[in-house]
Structure formats: structure tokens, C-alpha cells
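Q: Start with the shorter request: fold the first protein.
A: Done. Sequence, then structure:
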Amino acid sequence: MSEPPRPSGAPEVLCFGETMVLLAPGPQQRLGTARRLAVRVAGAESTVAQYLADLGHRAAWASRVGVDPFGDQVLAEVARPGVDVSAVERDAEAPTGVYFKDPDPDGTRVHYYRAGSAASRTTPAYVDALPLEHAQVVHLSGITPALSDSCAAAVDALLDRAGRAGVLRSFDVNHRPALWRGGRAAEVLLSLARRADLVFVGLDEARRLWGTTSPREVRDLLGEVELVVKDAEVGATVFRTGGDPGEFAPALPVEVVEPVGAGDAFAAGYLSARLHDDPPVERLRLGHRLAALALGSVADHAGATELRREGSGR
């Protein structure tokens, strides 16, 4: 029996997870001595939605923000490329999350002020009301379950609901060590990855979490999921289900301006090519092209409308 047609305005991809306001000093400056800070908007899942909108897909972002000017800014910025933000909930009793970047020659440090944020108060009741049934993909990451017990329960509920609805569950492991307490990250993220249909993970974070040292070892650990293992400037390997031996595509050479956001850009490129039914290696190649754009920009969302296919559109 064929599937019923999806409503024309329904999102193809629903991305779920917190987006915050980012404050950062200018080039060559440290946070402790800066007198001016640039204000931007950043969030892993909303960045995926923005790139998908650039590429001509109907993308929606779902989360919660405060009834405050930062919440207004988040909504306006995420919606700018054409992302549907109508499912975002405003919380009058909790603020929009904020974080600060502190550039350092030894590596940029990040300071989060998101405890008690509107997004951290997300519950299963919120995800139960999301417009999910007509989507093709729901995308989420391992950041959300680290925010609070209620967020972890909401992730569980969303995975269960998407599974029942036959919606592809896309999960980016996205391990942020600073968010996890009590040494539970490895166990929780492994369980969530095994429940997903499509998993993105960096080889470095898989090694840190689970001790796996090669894409094949990650595949053996996660089992029968569609798996994409990214190895920074080396390239990425994709394994489909059913004993697939895997396919590899090298990363593109690029001068790195800022590494933040490249993984989200890659995921968006891969998802876009998958929605177009491209072969697996072509999905990796489009992921690399978007990642290269992100690596060459200081912004989480660099803009990728020039990669939109002829005839694509919402």
C-alpha cells in the first residue's frame, strides 16, 4: 500500500534542540579583556535546518526560548533562510540560553550559561504536540539529553514517536563533555545511537566515548543503523544496513577559519542528498562541500544557497 500524500506545506525535516545566543570578542581578542562582543545565534540542530532550507528543503526547527529579546533574536535569525519556526514555544518564566566564546591560541574555550534555560525545561508533552507525522526525517543530537532529565525524557519520547510514525530518526552523537556529569555520556549516547535509523559520529568522539579506533569498530558497536563516521580532514565513511562494507569519500582541502558548525553543515548536506535518493558516496560528497563552506566562515551558518539544485524549492 502506498503512503498517503504529505501536505504541501509540511516540513520534510524537523530538527529538534536548543539554540542560544552566542557572544564573542573580535579577532585576536580574549574574553577577559574585550570591551565589545559580537552577538550571534548558534545551535547545532537549527543550523542543520538552516542549511537544509538553503538547499531548497522544507525544514522546521522545534525548541523553546524565553520571552525576552534574545528569544526574539533566535527566532528571527533561524527563520531568516526560510526555516519554519512555528512550533517553537516561548517560556515567560525561563530565559533563552546564552554562551560565550573565548578564543585562545591553544584552542577556543566555551562558557555556557544555559542551566535553567527555556529549552532545558522541555518535556515529553512538548514533543508530543510537534507536527511530526508528515515529516520524512526528524533530526536531533546528543546535546539535548545532557541538558536536563526532562530533556532526556523528551528525546526518548521523540524517538519513540518518530519510530511509530515511520519517520527516519537522524541522530548526531555530538558529544559535548562539559555538559555531562557523572560519567553517563558513553552509555546514554550509545543507547540513543542504537535506537536511531541514521547516525553521525566523529571518529574522535567515538574513540573518546567508546574506545573504538576505526569506522569498522564503530559499525560493529552500533549494529544495524545507517552510519556515517567522520574523520576530520581525512574524510568520512558511510555504512548502510545489511552487511554493507562501507564507502569512503575524502574531505575537501580547506583553510580552516573556524571549526564550529562544520559537523552540522555536513549532516545537512548528507540529509539533503539522501532526500534526493543520491548514492551513499554522493551524500558524503555533498556533506563535505557544505562542511568546507562552514570551515571557511566564523558563523555557524555560512549560507549555502549556491549549492541548491536546479528546480529545487519549497
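Q: Next, the second protein, separately.
A: Sequence, then structure:
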Amino acid sequence: MAADGALVAAVASTFCFGAGLITARIGLRNMDARAGAALSVPTATVLFVLASPFALDLAGFTVQAALVFAVVGLFFPAVVTLLTFRATALLGPTITSSVSGTAPLFAIAAAWLILDERVPAKAAISAVGVVAGVALLTWRAGEARKVRLGRALAWPIAGAIVRGIAQVGVKAGLLLWPNPFAASLIGYVMSTATVAGADRLRGEARAKRTPKGIAWFMLTGLFNGSAMLLMYTALAVAPVWKVAPIVASYPLVTALMGALLLPDEKLTPRTGIGAALTVAAVAYLVGAPAA
């Protein structure tokens, strides 16, 4: 795949992640975060398994790469999904999205430290621009006053760290076996085990599942699974510093879709500035020459 194809995949991943957050918001009205994750992640896994006879190519298979994908899969998307859903329940989707938008900073730093990627100055500038744009898009002072921040902020911060480091881990595996579908399949199988185990820890306190909640979280799984496959497709060709800021701009999609589909979501001058800043930061990353 050419560099242009990687860019298209990264942008498509952004749209899927943004749509998945919208469907998760609606699903959380009917079920709690852990039960939702226990539905959305396995849904994507089933779809990957069903597609594997047609899409899985074992050429170039290495045990080392499969192990890397499996280790990453224990944490991503499973742990990130649990942390994000929990943060959304505690802090609301806007604050969660704002804090989660710091993921590219962790991804770029980890890529530099672990993969020895040569990170150009424009990548750091773009990542900071995306973070600032996402903050403007999603932050609401009124909502912040309604919740107790403090310890609750640890949930989205932890999710951003895990998401950023996971992208670097997958990139390391893709350098050994450049197979995005295999990375997604193995990762989701391991993540399903993680969320199923977390759900079973409830014992007698397992949450009630509603038909609406099941439908919305299954749709969330479809969006998130597609987003991950597209992101891994981009990472198979492009460096982490180029993919991470683009994918992290998904709250822009969430804000626009939320304004269209959710009655409690409205666009404001501040969100307009945030949207413009996010788009400008991504455009700068894609268009400016590396330095």
C-alpha cells in the first residue's frame, strides 16, 4: 500500500472511532460500561473470525509477531474499551474525549523511545495541535463542575496511555509480519478473553442487559473493529508519528455526528474553533515536509 493509501486508511479509522463513541454513548443509557464492553469487543471478534477464511493470509507468519499481537490484545482494545466506557460513565463523554485526545503524545514518545523512530518536528507540533483542538471540541466547564474530577481523571488518562503504547506495540509486530488483519484478529481474540473475564468477576452482580443496549453495543463493536483494522492497515505502511495524530482526531467526528444525531449535543463557537484547529493540525502533518 502506498503512503496515500495509509492516509486514507487512517482517516477512515478516525470516522469509525468517532461513530463508535456515538453508539457507545447511546448504549450507556441502557447498560453499564463493563457489560457494554463484554458485548462490543466479542461482536468484533466474531466478525473477524467469520472473515478469516477469506481474509487471513499466513504468508510471512512469525511466532514473534503473533506473540506481540497477542500481548497487545490483552490490553487493546479490551482495557482501553473498559477504561473509556468507565470514564464516560463517571465524567461524561466530553471530558473523557478531551483527556483521551492526549493519546498521540504518548504514542509518539513511545515510538521514539521503543522503535527509535525519527520523529520530525512537525509531528510533535501536529500532535499538540490535535490535543488542543480536541480539548476545545469536547471540554465543557459546566459539565466539569457537575462531576468530581480527581481520581476519576485516572480512567481516561490511563486509557490514553494504553492506547498510545498499544499503537507502538502493534507497529513493532507489523515490522515482523505486516499483516493488519492478523494483528486485528489475534488482538480481538485476546481482548475478548479479557473483557469476558472482567464481566464474570461480577459474580451475582452482573448487570442486566437490555435489547436496546445489546443492539447499540454490537454496533459499537462493528465500528471499533473496523476502526482498528483500518488503523493497523495504516500502521503497516506509515510510521506511528504520522498515524497517531490523525486517528486521535476522532472526537471531531463525534462532535459533528453528535450535533446531528443527539439532541443534547450542540455546536458552539468554541467547538467550531476546536474543529478548525484539529483539521489544521492534521492538514499540517500530512502536507508539511518532514524536518
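Q: Describe the second briefly.
A: The chain has a mean pLDDT of 85. The chain has one domain: 3-54+61-287.
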